[in-house]
Amino acid sequence: MTATLLRTAAELRARTRAGRRAVVMTMGALHDGHATLVRNARELAGPDGEVVVTVFVNPLQFGAGEDLDRYPRTLDADLKIAEQAGADVVFAPSVDEVYPGGEPQVRISAGPMGARLEGASRPGHFDGMLTVVAKLLHLTRPDAALFGQKDAQQLALIRRMARDLNFGVDIVAVPTVREADGLALSSRNRYLSPKERHTALALSAALFAGRDRHAAQEALRARAREVPATQARAEALSAIGESRAAADAHAVAKAAPGNPAAVRAAARQALDEALRLDPPLELDYLALVDPADFTEIGDDFTGEAVLAVAARVGATRLIDNLPLTFGAAS
């Protein structure tokens, strides 16, 4: 398959459409995470549909002192990756094409959720992101748009915008793609020196530590519920390596589902160890939040949650997250 490179909205509008159109929005510097999005889009659109990959480095979502100027521009390589993954079109408009007449005076506000976590660290970022996503949805007019779960807060805001403003497009989430050592794929990973990349592994290590603690808790509670006799319950708990909990099996069996505090503590320990590395990790935030509004969950929370982390390693800022489910649904 050969992907067609288009530069203007008029060229895109002139294409004859048949079947569903699925769009994958990127800022370029494509990697296998983006390719996974494109492959999912190809499957969703089907053989008679069309997959459009947008490549646009959006100036509205970069704040003062951020890396707009040094953000990698690799259009030739991007075209090849998109093509190999199954894209029909790569839409790579100029800034003037997307924002004719300069920066737009009317923008979309991300609201209270856009001021938390990433929004608190990068004021205005989500307003700029939602504005360009809205424009690109209008320009490409897809039936479905696919986004990675690595940018969990971005995904939640786009879903909210599409629902609140009646965009009439399916917003499809695709799981995070990781390298063999656990590091989430990101266009910014190329900025990391070998030593910085070693430190950066602390982000995924913290998330995995929180996930493993959560899984152990849920297994412990499930085993405790299955064994009615106190002595047998204690033995069962000991068998899965929770000797302290086994000492008070009845309390464990009666405990509320999940323990967000323990999940946070396990993740925090991994991050604290990274503070002593060379170069050290500079933590921005570690949060365990409700994906509906990105507020911190309490210890009695049940349902879906997101364990999220952001940090700087040298001059590079990285984010990562994992979904967790607390309670009976897990």
Give the SSE map.
Layout: E1 4-6, H1 9-13, E2 21-26, H2 32-45, E3 50-55, H3 75-85, E4 89-91, H4 95-98, H5 118-121, H6 125-140, E5 144-148, H7 152-164, E6 170-174, H8 194-226, H9 230-239, H10 243-246, H11 249-254, H12 260-274, E7 281-289, E8 303-313, E9 316-326
Parallel strand pairs: 1-4, 2-3, 2-5, 3-4, 5-6
Antiparallel strand pairs: 7-8, 8-9
Helix pairs in contact: 2-3, 6-7, 8-9, 8-12
What does this structure look like?
- The chain is built from 12 helices and 9 strands.
- Helix 8 runs antiparallel to helix 12.
- 41% of the residues lie in helices and 18% in strands.
- With 330 residues, it is α/β, with parallel strands linked by helices.
- About 4% of the residues have low confidence.
- The relative contact order is 0.12.
- It is globular, with a radius of gyration of 22 Å.
Coarse morphology: globular
Task: Return residue spans where pLDDT drops below 50 for at least 5 consecutive residues.
Answer: 245-257
Q: Report the count of strand segments.
A: 9
Strand order across the largest sheet: 1-4-3-2-5-6
Assembly state of the chains shown: single chain
Main sheet?
6 strands, parallel
Distance between the termini: 41 Å
Radius of gyration: 22 Å
Class inferred from helices and paired strands: alpha/beta
How large a portion of the residues is in β-strands, by DSSP E? 15-25%
The whole-number mean of residue pLDDT values reads: 90
Question: In sequence order, what are the helices and strands, one letter per element?
Answer: EHEHEHEHHHEHEHHHHHEEE
